[in-house]
Write a structure and sequence with these properties.
Layout: H1 2-14, H2 16-27, H3 39-55, E1 59-63, E2 70-75, E3 85-91, E4 111-113, E5 116-118, H4 126-143, E6 149-155, H5 165-171, H6 173-176, E7 180-183, E8 195-200, E9 202-211, E10 217-218, H7 219-222, H8 229-238, H9 261-269, H10 274-279, H11 294-299, E11 303-311, E12 321-322, E13 325-334, H12 340-352, E14 360-369, E15 372-373, H13 379-392, E16 397-401, H14 406-415, E17 418-422, E18 437-439, H15 440-455
Helix pairs in contact: 1-4, 1-15, 2-4, 4-15, 13-15
Bound molecules: zinc ion.
Length: 457
Amino acid sequence: MTDRAAPVLDRLDDQMPAALERLSELLRIPSISTDPAYADACTAAADWMVADLASMGLDASRRDTPGRPMVVAHADGPPGGEGPHLLFYGHYDVQPVDPLDLWRRDPFDPVVEDGAIRARGASDDKGQLMTFVEALRAWIAVHGAPPCRLTILLEGEEESGSPSLVPFLRENAAELRADLALICDTGLYDDRVPAIATSLRGLLGEEIVIHGANRDLHSGSYGGIAMNPIRVLTRILGGLHDAEGRVRVPGFYDGVPELEPERKKAWQDLGFAAEAFLGEVGLADPAGERGRMPLEMIWSRPTAEINGILGGYTGAGFKTVLPAQASAKVSFRLVAGQDPHRLRESFRDWVMAQIPADCRVEFHGHGASPASAMDTSHPLFDAAREALSEEWGDAAVFTGMGGSIPIAGHFREELGMESMLAGWAKDDDRIHSPNEKYDLDSFHKGMRSWARVLARV
Ligand SMILES: [Zn+2]
């Protein structure tokens, strides 16, 4: 197995300067997807990718959409080979660059300095996607064909909400459906430890508005006899968590799985220091469910948070008012096993049961996306963990992600396909910020990692 990797790894080492030059070319194209003024640049970046993939012998094409184009490329595996069909996903569009004056140089004039390449998109996601492209280029140069059938899908609207993605997946499902998707748009666990993200939390948003009297009242006349909606609201919100940090909405934890002992041990071994993590933001004590590991709180436990409260008089001075209404925005991070729509119902029932006769409540829903947990039974998950451990020297971990990456959910829903998320970005890459960079060792070890993964297919 490793025999097949070795000559590819050597070639990647030799070709590092050329690979950096290719990445620089791509970084010079200002493919900002959200700003219509850069639509032509997005098309140029898509064309650049098509030409590059075609130069490696892939059947590559630009596929126009109502928004920015997709790039799709196919390669057959070795003649007579069996293997799986893999789909690689990345995005060639980038975030806007403002505030421009905080950049030390032109964001689209990449430079290599201090062991990193610096430009908009260097990390997110041009540098990352090129680690796979370079690994594949070297593999084909050495072995003549990829180790298995391969499809590459590059999106140009990831940074602007992916409006064309789901329709494109639907229209081209037969062409794009593969056994497993590889997504390179995430980071290392820290500067050393490679990570494969296997769960992403979902999100449910609710706004509640509690109405009382038909107008604001004076507390001298009505205080004590009229119900105050803020009193109702704060009692409800105050009861959202119990003393142990658990969410009190009935049925909230139904279907929430316990962490497997093996996973728990692996997370413990990461030595995550809650004090340091919280210390950076001026805090000290984990506020999640008592008795849970801090990483569990972020990666594998569902949460409820009050994001905003509005009501009454909040201006200068004082006004003794009983407001006619009070409202709050509450959001829930969800884990696999929780149904966002059912939870919305139980949250609303729970709130309504606490509304006194003189008040009424109004609800506004704000999004409901389920969490996803990857089915890691595909043998490539363990193979990739081995491959990454070999390259980075520290054992790769299956991690969770507190936030969400919608693409993985779309692949599952539209194409019935699991995703494996692996990437080499670092926390200090300044993605979406001025002076974005990608470390040369992320780039170099990243391509070597993909070569080692390909060797295990
Ligand atoms: Zn990205």
